[in-house]
Design brief:
TIM Barrel; binds manganese (II) ion; elongated; Alpha-Beta Plaits; binds phosphoenolpyruvate; eight-stranded parallel beta barrel; alpha/beta; 2 domains
Length: 347
């Protein structure tokens, strides 16, 4: 249920509606816009909330049911094209977030070299995994905690906010302490305990779509995070598993406009994991931008042939400037500004 307050409703009127919702055992999620406040009333007992007759309360304009299974993240509740604020930068709402870096932090040297290159090329954020979800238990599993320190050093030097994955609750505090954005990987998209705890941690979340999750399931996972009070979720389409084997996964481009229409959240695309092959990343990135994506996350490495993880899909760090220049043309075409360059545009 969504309670839309009248323009100019007072704080007392909002507080009173919140109190009535909570007295019925439901949770109230007020959201103050420039002119209008809306309050989401989320609870298991829908009839009970309806029986509160909130239409009759002072300051209430109307009460609208949210029919979608996800509520807080639905575009019915907060509208579409919202942005997420990340350490002073944005993704969404007309700002395009380019996140780039190695699949995994392998060493200080490798990470700093990549961080400098992606920053020089125009990326707004640095990615790099400390903990890697590998299909084979014999594959490199990530450096673990020492990698987080390397990422901090890379941020200090380049100023790029860090995006890094958390795989389990055991490492959540350590990751949250350093990450500007916590990534939930495709394999953990339905790890509901982890989603809840990440929601409580209150740090922006990059939520990958699972290899076989429907868009609705993906948005319900985002709802788990939002329900804990953290609406700063960025959705990431990273390819799904289909019958096709020519690419690592099948990039579902339609997920971009579909998810953007259904949810209020920014949607970005990961062409690296979808394609699995370096030469396909640029055409897929272009398609994603033109389909309306709010950003991209791509893997870049100084020496992909020696990478410990996902080398075949890593872009060469020294060629990344040309790659970004190409993608930037599509970003311009869509009338968006690259995150990290907003000040330059408005100055
Ligand atoms: C990654 O970003 O390195 C990664 C493991 O992605 P995904 O969870 O989408 O496979
Ligand atoms: Mn990877």
């Amino acid at each position: 249920m969504m309670i839309v307050m009248k323009e100019g409703a007072t704080d007392e009127q909002v507080a009173h509606v919140v109190e009535r919702i909570e007295s019925a055992g439901a949770k109230a999620h007020p959201s103050r816009g420039e002119f209008v406040t809306v309050i989401g009333a989320i609870g298991d007992d829908r009839e009970m909330i309806a029986s509160l007759n909130l239409e009759g309360e002072e300051g209430v304009e109307k009460v609208v049911p949210i029919l979608k299974p996800y509520k807080l993240v639905s575009s019915d509740f907060r509208g579409s094209d919202r942005h997420v604020e990340i350490s002073g930068r944005r993704i969404g709402g007309g700002t395009f977030g380019l996140i780039a870096g190695p699949c995994a932090v392998e060493s200080r040297e490798q990470t700093l070299t990549t961080a400098r290159a992606v920053r020089a090329a125009g990326a707004g954020f640095l990615r790099g995994g400390a903990f890697k979800p590998r299909t084979s238990p014999y594959a490199f599993q990530g450096m673990g905690l020492p990698a987080l320190e390397i990422l901090v050093e890379a941020r200090e030097e380049t100023g790029l906010p860090i995006v890094t994955e958390v795989m389990n609750l055991r490492h959540l505090d350590d990751v949250v302490e350093v990450a500007d954005v916590v990534q939930i990987g495709a394999r953990n998209v339905q790890n509901f305990d982890l989603l809840r705890e990440v929601g409580r941690a209150g740090v922006p979340v990059l939520l990958k779509r699972g290899l076989s999750t429907t868009i609705e399931e993906w948005l319900l996972s985002a709802e788990y995070v939002a329900r804990e009070g953290n609406g700063d979720v960025i959705l990431c389409e990273r390819g799904i598993r289909t019958f096709e084997t020519a690419t690592r996964s099948t990039l579902d481009i339609s997920a971009v406009p579909v998810a953007k229409g259904l949810a209020s959240l920014p949607v970005i695309v990961d062409p690296s994991h979808a394609a699995g092959r370096r030469e396909l990343i640029l055409p897929m990135a272009r398609a994603a931008v033109v389909a309306g994506a709010d950003g991209l996350i791509v893997e870049v490495h100084p020496a992909p042939e020696t990478a410990l993880c996902d080398g075949p899909q890593a872009l060469h760090a020294e060629e990344f400037g040309d790659w970004v220049a190409d993608v930037r043309r599509c970003v311009d075409l869509m009338g968006k500004v690259m995150a990290g360059e907003e000040a330059a545009v408005s100055a």
